[in-house]
Automatic annotation (TrEMBL):
Protein name: Class I SAM-dependent methyltransferase
Organism: Saccharopolyspora aridisoli
A molecular function (GO) term: methyltransferase activity
GO BP terms: methylation
Ribosomal protein keyword on record: no
Alphabetically ordered keywords of this record: Methyltransferase, Transferase
Length: 283
C-alpha cells in the first residue's frame, strides 16, 4: 500500500471482540445495486467467489436494516451453488432484525466488525471469506484509521479473496470503491448514473476515505478527476445521444492517456475502473 502500516495479529476465535464502531445506519433498497452488479459482472472479481473453497461473502456493516444484505445474496446467487452471505453488524438490535429475515445457510447474520466474527482466515481451519463488501463503513473514520482498517480486514481474507470498500450516495447514483487483495489495493472504480452528474468530478464527494482528502493539486486522484472533466467537455457533442453515450465517449477519450481496465459495456453503465497505482496517494 502507498502508506506504510504495521500489521496487527489476528484475534483468536475464543477471545475475539467486535472491532469498529456502529455505522450511521442509512439503508435504502437498491442503494448498492451498482456495486453488486459490478461484482457479479466483472470476471476477475466474480472468480474470487466462483473458485473459492468456501464461498463465503461478508457484508460488513450493513446498517439499520438488512435490506442490502438480502439483495447482495440475491444478486450473487448465481456465482456458486453453495454461496453463503453473512451480514455483520456491531449493533445487536440490527443483528436481531437481520436474523428475523435470514434464510440459513444461504443467508445469516452475526454480531461482529473488522475481526469478522469468527470468519477470519485461520480460525478453526476456515480459509477466510472469498469476498467482503464494506460500503459506507469507513466514511466516519479518519484517513489513518481507514488505512489501518484496510490492513486488518485484508489480512483476514482467504487466499485470492477480495475486499470491496467504498462509499455511495443515499440512493446509489454516485459511487466510488476500491478493490483490495491481501497484498493491498488493486483498483479504483467510479460509477454513476450519468444523467445525475454535471461533470465527472462530482463523484469526488464519494471517494473512499483514503482518497477523499487527497483530491488536491499535486495528487494523482485530483489529476484523474480533472482529466475526466476535460474529456467530458470534449464529449459534449455526444450529449444528444444521451448521458450514457456521453460518459462512454468520455472514458474512451480518457483511455487514450490513462490506464483503463474495463471496456465499453461497463462504460455504458456509467463505470470506469483504473489501477490503484494510477491514483495512489503521493507519499
Amino acid at each position: 500500500m502507498s502508506v506504510p502500516k504495521k500489521r496487527n495479529p489476528r484475534l483468536a476465535a475464543g477471545r475475539a471482540r467486535a472491532m469498529g464502531v456502529p455505522t450511521r445506519g442509512t439503508t435504502n433498497p437498491n442503494r448498492l445495486r451498482r456495486i453488486d452488479r459490478w461484482i457479479a459482472g466483472t470476471p476477475w472479481v466474480a472468480r474470487a467467489v466462483r473458485s473459492a473453497v468456501e464461498p463465503v461473502v461478508i457484508d460488513l456493516g450493513y446498517g439499520a436494516t438488512p435490506t442490502t444484505t438480502v439483495e447482495l445474496a440475491q444478486r450473487l446467487s448465481g456465482l456458486h451453488p453453495r454461496l453463503r452471505v453473512v451480514g455483520l453488524e456491531i449493533d445487536p438490535d440490527r443483528v436481531a432484525a437481520g436474523r428475523a429475515v435470514a434464510d440459513p445457510p444461504r443467508l445469516e447474520f452475526r454480531r461482529g466488525g473488522f475481526e469478522l466474527a469468527g470468519l477470519a482466515a485461520g480460525i478453526r481451519d476456515f480459509p477466510g471469506p472469498a469476498l467482503i463488501r464494506a460500503l459506507n463503513v469507513l466514511r466516519q473514520y479518519t484517513e489513518p484509521e481507514a488505512w489501518k482498517a484496510w490492513d486488518e480486514v485484508c489480512s483476514r481474507l482467504a487466499p485470492g479473496g477480495l475486499l470491496v470498500e467504498g462509499t455511495c450516495d443515499e440512493i446509489g447514483r454516485r459511487c466510488c470503491w476500491v478493490t483490495l487483495t491481501r497484498e493491498g489495493p488493486r483498483t479504483l472504480t467510479l460509477a454513476c448514473l450519468p444523467s445525475d452528474i454535471d461533470k465527472p468530478s462530482d463523484l469526488a464527494e464519494r471517494l473512499p476515505k483514503t482518497l477523499i482528502h487527497r483530491n488536491v493539486p499535486g495528487e494523482r486522484i485530483h489529476a484523474l478527476l480533472s482529466g475526466l472533466d476535460v474529456c467530458w467537455a470534449k464529449a459534449a457533442p455526444h450529449a444528444p445521444f444521451g448521458p450514457r453515450a456521453r460518459w462512454a465517449h468520455t472514458v474512451r477519450l480518457f483511455a487514450e492517456r490513462w490506464p483503463v481496465l474495463d471496456r465499453h459495456p461497463r462504460w455504458r453503465l456509467g463505470e470506469l475502473t483504473v489501477p490503484w497505482t494510477a491514483v495512489a496517494p503521493q507519499v
